[in-house]
Amino acid sequence: SAVWALDPTNGTTIWKYSTRNSVKNVLGYEDGIVVVQDSEGYVYALDASEGSCRWKYRLPYDRPYACDGLTVHNGVVFCGLQGERCALDLQNGRVLWKGERLRHETHSCKRDVVIGDCLISGMQWDCLAAFDIRSGQRLWAQSEHGLRFRSMSPVSDPEDPTMMYIASVDTLHRIRVSTGEIIEKFTFPGYHFEVISKPCVCDDRVLLATSNRGLLAVSKSTGEVLWNFVPDISLICSSPYSHQPHKGIHGDILIDEGRCLFGAEDGCIYVLDVRTGTVIQRYPLGVPVFASLSLE
Predict the structure, then answer these.
(1) Is the backbone of residue 205 left (phi > 0), alpha (psi -120 to 50) or beta?
(2) How many helices (H) and strands (E) does the chain have?
(3) Beta bridge partners of 283
(4) Residue 286: closest CA among 264, 258, 259
(5) Burial letters for 168-200: b for 16+ Cβ neighbours within 10 Å, e otherwise?
(6) What is the Cα 194 distance to its own chain's centre?
(7) What average pLDDT does this structure show over 264-272?
(8) What are 20-38's pLDDT values in tens digits?
(9) Residues 199/221, Cβ–Cβ less than 8 Å
(10) pTM for this prediction
(11) How far from the centroid of its chain's Cα atoms is residue 207's Cα?
(12) Which of 65, 111, 169, 280 has the CA that lies 20 to 30 A from 36?
């Protein structure tokens, strides 16, 4: 198990840092420091240029299968396991606060997200929750309308940062960040949002990855389905309770000059026209793509 730094021009290894166990979620990066959390609950801060370990912190955890994500924001690492969040100083790993433990101690592949002064987190089978980023105090918890069951992470509304979007089960929610109030929700029967991704808000529409029917584009204002791109059958069924025929997409959807880019479980990378869903380019890799792409 290791973290690798590769040269983006030729793929050669720049450095490698071995971790105690596998890293199953996103890397955090800020101020020349890469932060990862492994499945045993160890958090590592690595120098991005040479791969040396700046500091290491052990979360209170005793089972080697954690898959929770972390986030780095303004010099603070927000992480945690088993329903308990904590904040660490990015420079030295010092504990800044530990938050209130939630009822359940289950894991989820979702990622914590900072929106305004709130850390949006939560636990599978429990709730979606918000914590004050300065103190760790829990501000609200929301478990209605399927929000207890989710692997998607939330995203802020670019036009109104007091609002966020999050999808769970078969429903897209628009939620007030400060209170957790559900302002609006649109349900899409037959579409399953049990994927490691987040809604992609682009102008007048929201793009949603699904575990069974590819990529869905819906209107922000009405919830109308604008288009649905369906890839080929997945090479591996990775989402909970999934079965073939399964046509899933994991990872975030990227937007670049009117195009959306993503990898799919059918082993291809796709570039689509964001207005119409028409395929512009398709790159077959031969292996399922579970991670988010990156643009330089």
Answers:
(1) beta
(2) 0, 26
(3) 269
(4) 264
(5) bbbbbbbbebeebebeebbebeebbbbbbbbbb
(6) 12
(7) 97
(8) 988 888 899 999 999 999 8
(9) no
(10) 0.90
(11) 14
(12) 169
Residue that the structure tokens 């994991």 belong to: 250
Q: How many CA atoms lie within 13 A of 200 on its CB side?
A: 24
Q: What is the pLDDT of residues 212-228, one digit of tens each?
A: 999 999 999 999 999 99
Dump pLDDT digits (tens) for 173-186.
Answer: 999 999 999 999 99
Q: Are 191 and 216 in contact (CB under 8 A)?
A: yes
**Spatial contact of 189 and 182, defined as CB atoms under 8 Å apart:** no
Instruction: Give residue 76's identity as a one-letter amino acid code.
Output: V
Q: What is the pLDDT of residue 112?
A: 86
Q: Which residues of 36-54 are buried (b: 16+ CB within 10 A; e: fewer)?
A: bbbbbbbbbbbeeeebeeb
Give the residue carrying structure tokens 């570039």: 271
Tokens matching residue 276? 């119409």
